[in-house]
Amino acid sequence: MNAAAEFDCVVVGAGPTGAVLATLLGQRGRRVLVVERDERVYPLPRAVHFDHEIARVLQEIGVMERLLPTMNPAAEYRFENAAGELLVHLVTEPGSARSGWEASYMFVQPELEQILRDRLGEVVGVTAWYGAECIDLAQTDQDVELTVRRAGRAETVRARFVVGCDGASSFVRDKLGVAMDDLGFDEPWVVIDTKPKRDIGLDPATAYQYCDPARPTTCVPAGPRRRRWEFMLLPGETRESIATPESVWRLLAPWGGEAALELVRVAVYRFHALIARRWRVGRTLLAGDAAHQMPPFMGQGMCSGIRDAANLAWKLDYVLGGLAPSALLDSYEAERAPHVRHVVETSVALGRVVCERDPQRAAERDAFLLATRRAGGNPLAGQGGQAARLAHGLLQPESAGAGELFPQPHVHGNDGSLRLDEIVGTGARLIHAAAECASVPVDRRVTRVAIGGAARAPEGAARGESDPGGVAVNEFAGPSVRTWLREHGAIAALVRPDHYVYGTAATAAAAAELVDSFWSDVTNDTSSTGE
Q1: Domain annotation for the chain: domains and CATH numbers
Q2: What's the alpha-carbon Rg for the chain, to the nearest Å?
Q3: What backbone torsions phi and psi does residue 294 show, to the nearest 5 degrees?
Q4: How do residues 1-31 score in pLDDT, each as one tens digit?
Q5: Tens-digit pLDDT profile for residues 340-351
Q6: Other C-beta atoms lying within 10 Å of the C-beta of residue 188
Q7: Bridge pairing between strands 428-432 and 492-495
Q8: What span, in angstroms and rounded, lies between the C-alpha atoms of 230 and 251?
């Protein structure tokens, strides 16, 4: 570089994706500037759901305990037809999710965003400019120069990297000239957020899809004491006609209407399915809605953006710290784009099930889904962002379990009883359940984690012994690491900083090779621009 950049990274946009990315980088000691157009958090709800994997990332940045009082778990998802018959029934058992949290949470986005902004303000090395707007961007092989307007003045900042997390109408994406692939879904819906004044006969932990060809409808909890409805617009209805008080109360009449509900927000959206054709141009990258947009039927829009942040943060950190060349950043799109495409395509397919308005085709759909249920099947089982394992990128594809999200049990060790990541950290980890792996050589870049036998509740079981080369813990609740390893024929797994499995090993010698292979892949420079 010609001269020292002012920042390691500028993150454009302080929505959930940008705030999480900036916090993850700041916690790793990087100098980060966040540029956000809105001075204050947008006061109305938008996203309402995140899953257990995202809870694990929010745990990593230290906000899950703050968020818990503002959320409620969602344990059940029901698809019903016009006759009230149950077409699909998705139920999750408490504590069964792989990441050590509940499978799903429903929340109020302004409350989540404020907590994320508060956390940003606590992280040393992170600077946030609110009420500021990027108006120009230029980059070289060595840095990126941004022109930012704030307080009525334009000023220039430079960074080694820029990440555009600035939403569907992204300035950064437009400036890079990146086009979007359209996956062919474009449907208008009216979204109505409410606060029930009394019991309206709906379970607060249950989401509903009413697959009625007369008016496809979604009804989901939207945080404690809140409920969201989404109604598909019919031919002839317009944004203006559907959003009138008369239309809104007519739509909500089956649940008590004005007597039972207080309106919070009414908005009309066109649900799209779009994916950016490029996620990296030189030293500038895209994440969140700037890189992909999807229908809401799986509740994975915000989740996908935070997965982007978790994937990108550790790779940027390795590059900025000199542990890897900039070519490592090419694995970001290679891993995330297929994952996102799976989620978008599944969401579109689910949307087509919900949005069917032809009575004959709807009857055929109902007959198929009812027959599947009677046969004990579930056509939607396993669907979701967390079900889409990584198939490309920085992993050993021939290795059992490679690309899967690694489990996080509740454990107890010398630091007390916590979730696994809270005790062992979130860098690269060699996690094993075999004594012979204790001699596997690791360096400061990898934490060796020995998992002991299953134990009773922490107050009645001995804590793990110290490991001079790492950490020793015993698991006592939640998803079991020992079971996961046994199911994959392994005694050890190399887990990346974003909690995905790089590869597994069946012997101690193979575990040592696994560590060497990981760093060989990380440091393999195939790019024309290095650091």
Answers
A1: 7-62+108-181+274-352 (3.50.50.60), 410-522 (3.40.30.10)
A2: 24
A3: -150, 155
A4: 345 569 999 999 999 999 999 999 999 999 9
A5: 998 888 888 888
A6: 16
A7: antiparallel
A8: 10
